[in-house]
Specification:
homodimer, 194 residues, mainly alpha, two-stranded antiparallel ribbon, 4 strands, elongated, disordered N terminus, transmembrane (chains A, B)
Chain lengths: 194, 194
């Protein structure tokens, strides 16, 4: 009878149907990770939606104009900013759709399927969010500082509000990126102890 | 005695020391993943080193000059490109240092420690590599196309070689990013089946 005592986890598979019981302590840690995962996802939704909205509404028209030309800057002007708006909207949409899987992880802390699904898609959308945040940051930096060697002048002197709004959007997207990294690390930790 | 038969995996824990046996099929799959992991890491080292070297040697001086000014473009001119060189060198260095852990995963396919360590650091360096690749891509795009609204002119007409070299570096870094995503997905799959 001693063999039944040294079996570490009481996982019973009956004809392909997995009945997961687990020991209470590991289950509690997994449940805690799953709840944290859900809360962080809500935060990431707010950050990415805020970034998309802030960038999407950035539009400034200068109060002076010449006969042929009116000075206007909006996110449409820069392809990196267009990419940013589209990507952040996609990321927010993915995060909303991922909430049910996060809830499944809370209800069944030992199920590896939803976690694996989430970690793979999180990695893909982390890449997407990081790429859009970094390319927008590069343009925002140029708009603030300009570049001497290529004769690109800083435009933030004229388009101050536009610059402030796009900078805010970039910061918000970086928050989303940090949350994504945390989500992946937490999912990996939860997967390991199964 | 029927309880010992329905235990799914033959994992025996004797006083805290884990003796992992595993079934041979899953071990073979894990070993395959670990070998693939090692090969992909070699590819990523080549891609990131190539990107850093290509960007770091990009330097073009135009054959004409005025009395006060000589036209020169190098990666030093753009802070995004400087960031790119530093980050790609860091990523290549990390990948070289991660090779021993990958080898440990090949020798001991069931050990979760090295895999967990690699998946967490891979995520961090994926973010770093993606950020540098995307910001450099945004600048390369601007150099090729310019921007009408902010009056930034395309410089690739003058600095053709410089543009070609930096574009090549960006493409090489994107290869490294794709390999990183594959590495993380493979590590997650290998962690799951433990």
């Amino acid at each position: 009878m001693s063999t039944t005592i040294i079996v570490p986890e009481s996982r019973n598979i009956v004809k392909g149907k997995t009945v997961v019981l687990g020991n209470p302590r590991a289950g509690g840690m997994k449940k805690g990770i799953a709840i944290m995962d859900f809360i962080l996802r809500l935060g990431a939704i707010a950050a990415s939606l805020g970034a998309a909205a802030s960038m999407g509404t950035s539009d400034q028209t200068l109060p002076f104009f010449t006969q042929f030309f009116q000075f206007e800057a909006s996110y449409d002007s820069f392809s990196a900013f267009q990419f940013f708006v589209i990507t952040m909207a996609l990321v927010a949409g993915y995060l909303v759709l991922s909430l049910p899987f996060s809830i499944v992880s809370i209800i069944r802390p030992h199920a590896t399927g939803p976690r694996l699904f989430l970690i793979i898609l999180d990695t893909v959308f982390l890449t997407l969010a990081t790429a859009s945040a970094a390319s927008a940051a590069a343009i925002v930096y140029l708009a603030h500082n300009g570049n001497q060697d290529s004769n690109w002048l800083a435009i933030c002197n004229q388009f101050g509000d536009f610059c402030a709004q796009t900078s805010g959007a970039v910061v918000s997207s970086l928050v989303a990126v940090v949350i994504f990294v945390l989500l992946i690390v937490m999912s990996a930790l939860a997967l390991k102890k199964t």
